[in-house]
Structures are given as structure tokens and as C-alpha cells.
Amino acid sequence: MSDCEKLGDCDESRLQRIYEYLDGELPASDLEAVRAHLESCPECASQHDLECVIRSVVKRSCGEHAPSTLRDRILARLGAAEHHE
Predict the structure, then answer these.
(1) Could you tell me if 3 and 36 are in contact, meaning their C-beta atoms sit under 8 angstroms apart?
(2) Which of 14, 53, 83, 84 is most buried, by CB atoms within 10 Å?
């Protein structure tokens, strides 16, 4: 039984480690410990999998481009706002 299962849920620091793991921000010395924990803790593994799905959806959504007419209108309004300051 993992620490998270014993406690009933993960604390913020453990969730932060999952985010750092996914972002590639963990030192090499911590990678194996996080991997091992994800393999032994269903709660953290579920959070990891959910975050992977969210990141995938966001990445796909960010590939879409706004129409050039919208871009031109936004730039025009920003330019007008700068002149009023």
C-alpha cells in the first residue's frame, strides 16, 4: 500500500512532483523515485494520466490559428489603445 493510499489522498508537494516530472524539470536523481511511486500508487498514477490527457488536448488546441481578420482587428485595437495612453 502506497503512502497516498494510506493517507487517503496526495498532498500538494507530491502533485507538484508529478507536474515537474511531466515538465522534465526533475533532477535525474529523482526521476526513478517518481517513476517507482507512479507504478505503486494508483491515485498518483491516475493524476499523472489525467494531466497527460489535459496537456494533449491543450497542445492540440494551441495548433489552431485565429483568422487573419481577427488578428488585424485585435492589433488595430491595441494600437488605438496605445495612442490613448
Answers:
(1) no
(2) 14
Instruction: Tell me 80's DSSP state.
Output: H
Across the chain, mean pLDDT equals 84
Name the E strands within 1-85: none
State how far the alpha carbon of 23 is from the alpha carbons of 26, 71, 85, in Å: 8, 30, 39
CA neighbours within 13 Å on the CB side: how many for 6? 4
d(CA 10, CA 22): 17
- Amino acid at residue number 16: Q
Please identify which residue in the block is written with the cell numbers 494508483. Answer: 42
Cβ–Cβ < 8 Å for 31, 21: yes
**Predicted confidence band at 74 (pLDDT cuts at 50, 70, 90)?**
very high
Number of Cβ within a 10 Å radius of residue 10: 21
